[in-house]
Every structure is written in C-alpha cells, then in structure tokens.
Amino acid sequence: MTLQTLAEAKAQAKSLRQALVAKGTQISHAQSLELIAQQNGVRDWNTLYARLSGAEPTPFNIHDEVRGQYLGQNFSGRIVAISKVGKSYRLSIQLDQPIDTVQFASFSNMRRRIRGVIDQEGRSPQKTSDGTPQLIVEPLVRRR
Question: Residue ranges of the Glyoxalase-related protein domain (predicted)?
Fold first, then answer.
C-alpha cells in the first residue's frame, strides 16, 4: 500500500510504535515517523512530509551533514533544527569541531553550535563588513 496522506503516515507510525511496544521495544514517536518514511522509500520524515503535503522540497533537512563558513570560519556539522521563515530557513547546526568566531588575537569566542537564516542557495542575507554572507551552508552529499 502506498501512502496517500499525512494522516495515513501518522497512523502507520502510531501502529508501528504500538506493535513494537507490545513486543517489548520502546521507540519514540519521532523514531517511528522516520521508520515509516524509510519504509516508503524516502530518506527521512521531512522528505515524506513534503511529498505528502505537496510542499516543495527543501534544500536542507534535519540531520543533514553540512559544511560551509560562519563569519569567515570553515566548519562541518549536522543540522539539528530547521524551520521555514517565508522563503528562507532558520537553521541550528551542531559543529563537528568548535570554531572561533572572533578574529582578535587577545580574545576568542568558541562556538560548538551556530544558528542563522539562509535562502534556498544556502546563503544568509546578512553580510559581514567585507560583504560576504555571514553564513554559507552546503550539503556534504548532494541529493538527486
């Protein structure tokens, strides 16, 4: 059976979770949604949600591995939160390694997580003093 609606997907996730609990395996509702998405041939719940809701696909999803620059510093990490803001996206990225966001020798500000708003191309509308975007994000693996 192919899913046709979000309600069907959510009902399947609920049934899966209840069946696993009956067999002694606890999973969260979010985990059951991710499993239903994978069973339906997509990489994650966000992708299945977009497909079933008719929304246009997003260039980024939660848990995507990304790289880029934040205030001129190179980084790599994983998206831990994402929300749509008009035509842009507000991201929170957990970094693989902390970066220093200050360029003064006598002061530093190490960040393990960064937040920002980006457009469809992965660039923030806010610019640094030299005119480059404050945040540039690109996926480590390009989707088809």
Answer: 2-138
